Amino acid sequence: MAKTMRLNELALGYAAAALSAACMLLLGIGWNLGIYSTAAQAMAQWHIFFGPTIGGIIAGMLEAAIWSFVAAYVFAWIYNKFA
After folding, report:
1. Contact at 8 Å (CB) between 57 and 51?
2. Residues 81, 71: Cα–Cα separation, whole Å
3. Residue ranges of domains in the chain
4. Alpha-carbon distance 41 to 56, whole Å?
5. Could you report the per-residue pLDDT of 47-82, keeping only the tens digit for each?
6. For residues 37 and 29, what is the distance between their CA atoms, to the nearest angstrom?
7. DSSP code per residue over 21-42
8. How far, in Å, CA of 39 to CA of 56, rounded?
């Protein structure tokens, strides 16, 4: 009987949360420097709390991390159910 590969739900969730928070940080910094401002404004339309201020960047990072963690965790959980 072949062994099936299983995903670690927490590890995938934490990795996705860290990656999305880092991307939001870089996007927020770039927004303040005038780099990728169109992309940052588009991201601000998708995320409720994301903005060009320090508080807006941190809030956007937290929001993105939470959503990413939940999405990756659910994805891994569903994957493990069918694997």
Report:
1. yes
2. 15
3. 9-82
4. 12
5. 999 999 999 999 999 999 999 999 999 999 999 999
6. 10
7. HHHHHHHHHHHHHTSSHHHHHH
8. 15
AA letter at 7: L
- Rounded Cα distance, 76 and 55, in Å: 31
Cβ contact 37:80 at 8 Å: no
Q: Write out pLDDT tens, residues 11-25.
A: 999 999 999 999 999
Structure tokens at 57: 């960047």
**Reported pTM:** 0.88
Decide: 61 and 54 in contact? Cβ < 8 Å: no
Task: Measure the N-to-C terminal CA separation of the chain; round to a whole number of Å.
Answer: 14
Dihedral sign of CA atoms 61, 62, 68, 73 in order: positive
Neighbouring CB atoms inside 10 A of 32's CB total 13
